[in-house]
């Protein structure tokens, strides 16, 4: 199995699945689906370095997070779509 470890202040996220249908029960075609802006953290880097000191990350593996619409870089790793973003591109952590 392929493993991935982000560098610096980067975070690997598994985007949540897009909605298949509306609240009213209508199915949404693939061309009209919005990209999800929510996902689950798969891996985190060690943190950014400022003035010779490493600043710890504010998220950890398994956290649900929100991120900006155009944040990060999408990659495919072992057949799975993953989004790589900087910690500063995260909008917040979701605590259910």
What does this entry look like structurally?
It is found in: Cytoplasm. Belongs to the GroES chaperonin family. Keywords: Chaperone, Cytoplasm. The chain is mainly beta. The protein has a domain at 10-16 and 36-94: GroES chaperonin (10 Kd Chaperonin, Protein Cpn10, Chain O, Roll). 0% of the residues lie in helices and 42% in strands. It has strands spanning 10-15, 38-44, 48-50, 53-55, 64-67, 73-77, 80-86, 90-94. It has a six-stranded antiparallel β-sheet, with no helix packed on it. It has a two-stranded antiparallel sheet with strand order 3-4.
Strand and helix map with partners:
Blueprint: E1 10-15, E2 38-44, E3 48-50, E4 53-55, E5 64-67, E6 73-77, E7 80-86, E8 90-94
Antiparallel strand pairs: 1-2, 1-7, 2-5, 3-4, 5-8, 6-7
What overall geometry do the principal axes of the alpha carbons give?
elongated
CATH architecture of the domain at 10-16 and 36-94: Roll
CATH H-tier superfamily of the domain at 10-16 and 36-94: GroES chaperonin
The amount of helix comes to under 10%
Largest sheet: 6 strands, antiparallel
CATH third-level topology of the domain at 10-16 and 36-94: 10 Kd Chaperonin, Protein Cpn10, Chain O
- The stretches of 5 or more residues where confidence is low (pLDDT under 50) are none
Rg over alpha carbons: 15 Å
Mean residue pLDDT: 83
Tell me the number of helical segments per DSSP (H or I, 4 or more residues long): 0
Q: Would you report the number of β strands?
A: 8
* CATH class value of the domain at 10-16 and 36-94: Mainly Beta
Structural class: mainly beta
| String of helices and strands | EEEEEEEE
């Amino acid at each position: 199995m392929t493993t991935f470890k982000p560098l610096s202040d980067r975070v690997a996220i598994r985007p949540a699945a897009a909605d298949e249908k509306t609240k009213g029960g209508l199915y949404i075609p693939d061309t009209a689906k919005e990209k999800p802006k929510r996902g689950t953290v798969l891996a985190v880097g060690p943190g950014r370095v400022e003035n010779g000191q490493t600043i710890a990350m504010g998220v950890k593996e398994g956290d649900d997070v929100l991120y900006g619409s155009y944040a990060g870089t999408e990659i495919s790793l072992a057949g799975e779509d993953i989004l790589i973003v900087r910690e500063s591109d995260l909008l917040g952590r979701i605590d259910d």
